[in-house]
Amino acid sequence: MGLTAMIKSNFKIFVNFKTYPQGRGMEAVRLARICQKLGEEKKMTIIPVVQAVDIYRVRKETEVSPWVQHIDWQESGQHTGWINLEAVVEAGAVGTLLNHSEHRIPPGKIRQILKRVAVVAVAGNRFARQEGRTFQVMVCCRTLGQLERLVKLKPDFLAYEPPELIGGTVSVSREKPRAVEKAVRICRRYDMPLIVGAGIHSGKDVLLAKKMGAMGVLVSSAVVLSEDPEEKIKEMLTLLHC
In terms of domain of life, where is this protein from (predicted)? Predict the structure, then answer.
């Protein structure tokens, strides 16, 4: 039975490998296998978010369907150095982050990418067709004001990540609970799943986010830089009773 068929919970864990040495090349494969293993054991959706250069490797060496950390708006052709939607789709990615605090893009470009995804992604992704999946987009927001504007673009997910908490040990669910609750209310008006990130590093942080109404968390350094990433993810899932 595949992972998709086994999932009982809509709550998702996105693990952003960023450009850490511990999350690229064969280390990316190792981490992706951990995501796959725990996802199957815990019946959770645990998604590795990898660099573009690691998509094909992770997809070939594991049974997990990776996301990519960023794509650009250019079509195929004379656009040297840009990360092309068609290329990541053909490599096996089934989703992407956009507008992360570490890679911001203008709202107009986000809109342009979303329009291209609607036309290009599924048609070119043999993995997506085989698994009945579509290519999804998570748009990241630094502030509630930005979230209120970008929710109108109707991506698949919105992420709320205050940049001052990214990479720290104080989570957004602890430091800004009222902001998270407001973000949830905004997203619910548009029937949009909210993902929260920044400083998420413990089971309590994850549980708080879920209790506030978030549909998932976006984590990175707490897992990728951990001496034991598998145990770290297990700890994050402990209080979810999965």
Answer: Bacteria
Catalytic residue among 100, 103, 131, 201: 100
Indicate whether 39 belongs to any domain: yes
User: Does the pTM of the predicted model rise above 0.70?
Assistant: yes
- The mean per-residue pLDDT over the stretch 163-170 comes to 67
User: What's 216's domain CATH number?
Assistant: 3.20.20.70
* Cα dihedral 229, 177, 9, 38 in deg (nearest 10): 0
pLDDT tens sequence across 96-109: 999 999 999 999 99
pLDDT digits (tens, 9 = 90+) for 52-85: 999 999 999 999 999 999 999 999 899 999 999 9
Q: How many domains does the chain have?
A: 1
Residue 161 annotated in active site: yes
- DSSP reduced 3-state for 37: helix
Selecting among 27, 86, 131, 161, the annotated active-site residue is 161
Catalytic residue list contains 100: yes
CA 78/CA 80 separation, integer angstroms = 6
